[in-house]
Amino acid sequence: MSVRRGYPSDLTDTQWALIEPLLPEPNTDGRREKHP
Question: Less CB within 10 Å around the terminal CB: N or C of the chain?
Answer without folding.
Answer: N
